[in-house]
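re: ur question from earlier - yeah i can do the single chain one, its not a big deal. heres the input i used so u can compare w yours
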Amino acid sequence: MSKKVDRFHVIDQLEKLKNGLSNILNHEQASSLDDPSKTNGLPKQTTSKHADIKQNDIALLANFQIISSSRKITEREGNGIDQNLDKLGDQTLILLDIKGRIVAFNRSAESSIHALSGKELKLGGHLEKFLPDESKKDFKEELGQALKGVTLHLTSQLKFRNDPDQWYEVNIYPVQNSNSKVNRVVWTMEDIKERKAAQANLKALQINFQSVFRQAAVSVVLSNTNLQVIQANHKFYELIEYSVEEFMALPPLSITHPRDLSESKRLLKLLCDGELDSFSLEKRFIAKTGKIVWVYITTNIIKDPKGKPKLIISVAQDITDRKHAEQELIFKSNELDTFVYRASHDLRGPVASLMGLFNVVQTEFKEDAHAMEYFEHYHKSVMRLDKILHNLIDLTKIREKEMTPTEVDLNDIISDCLSTISNAANFEKIHFKIKNKVKFKIHTDADTLRTILFHLLENAVNFMQLDNPRSFVKLDIKHESNFLVMEVADNGQGIKKELQSEVFNMFYRANEFSTGSGLGLYIVRYAVEKLNGSIQLKSKEMSGTKISVYIPYVSQSLDTAIEVAS
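and the output i got, formated as tokens:
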């Protein structure tokens, strides 16, 4: 049994996951070096005796001749603050002899060591004396390794007095003299506070993302641009009935129903090519047991900081129960339409026979006033039944009909409708005011338009005030911005305000004296919707009713080209 999930909740979950991934990708670029989480919190070091010095190290030691393995670092003598060292920027750079005594340093070293320890750097002094007590033992060991030719790259938390919680990147390089003997050591230190903050933010983002990922009430799948699944949450595996191992062994999109595969591939290609940022569709999965699972899936592309597509995240909501209900409803609706149509046609024959029988009765019993009174009641009931059957047939035709725009002459349709209702009771007592301002032919579905106008006029006639000698029905037809506007107004019985919202429902009659089928305005509403139009009603009890219909159309006058309704 699928759990009902609000679609807006699905979109919100996807947005959180998407933003989380984007933030993670942005932070990864800022914190890609020396993450303690990748070394169990221990400093990382290079222990090769002939480790190549990296390009950024070469730039760092630009004033030294650098060679490792096939190259050598040649010492450079200096007293006090070496002006060349001073050009190397904000990185702390100190040159030591084999005893760990300071041979040279740059201005950054002088200022940073003083700020952190409160001590002044001095030539000939031991660097160890300027370091925090907790780091002195490690420094001796590191110096010993450097003197053996080992280059060290460390990430350490040096607890200086004035900033005990700060992280630094420390690099130690052995410097060889012309005899290939290490007689100097370059010691560098760089504040990596921002990098560590970025790493902490990244870790928090990862934790937050994983929390949302795992706790989402819908299925969530993270894939690369090759459509290979990287990670999916428990809800997804519960939905498709595969274990993680079983699913990961399947080819991409292998659980997608064959009928949905082509569209899925098309949309995913547009997504990965950068032509779409996201898409949503209803599709089917085939679960491990062979069960068909309907899902509403929303898919977003996640880009790296350079704007290149990197990941695909999809959120899928199980809509199987809803789809089954829709299919069942469609099936029952089709069955009902078939029944109504068949029943209406099958009853038309007997009703026609009853109507013919009344004509015989009128001839044979016209002298028997008492008998004719009964037969008049009988005839009204038969006529009402005949009207209901006609309306049901009209409704079924509109439901099944494919809308086919053709050239329509509105004056012909008006004449047809008035002619059809001319047999209605009291028709002769009603004054019709017809005003058609549309002087050109329009393109729309003629039969549906005729049905709309007929039932609007019939409704106005049926609900006249019989004791009003000035009863009228007004029909105004005009066009407004490619909309055909038909307004039918009368001064009839009107409709109570509290009932006006119900009059367009099937079989609804606004008062107990109505002799109609209760289908007329329902048919009008249904037909207007089929033509993508709209309808408005204004009414006041015992004053009259005005119904306005707006229908988009295609027009062609003698002077203008065809204009398509928006």
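Residues 320-364 form the longest helix (45 residues). not sure if urs matches, ping me
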